[in-house]
Amino acid sequence: MTRIQLKYQPDYENYLAVNHAATFNAPTIVLIVLMGIVTLVTILGLALGWLNADTNQLLLYLLPPGTFIFFLIYTPINLRRRVKQATEQAKELSWHLSNSGITINEESESYKHK
Fold it and tell me: pLDDT band at residue 26, thresholds of 50, 70 and 90?
């Protein structure tokens, strides 16, 4: 009779890698670069006088770059906070494989599959 037992408890680095891959994938990186270029051009244009912004419309020029800068700072901080919460709530999983089936144990719950 063949038996295999696998145990796994995700840690901080595991959750960070998964969330980082989901948050900073290729389309997101392209969007960050494009928004960064637009932000730099807008701020430089306002500072150097390339853009003539009315004081009433200045918020319309500064809102997109301000939002981009906010999320550029907020995303990594929020990512690490979520990962820390997930790590604290992580449960150890174990799989027992044998000729009679698979048993999955998760903390106090157990599932059996033939």
Answer: confident
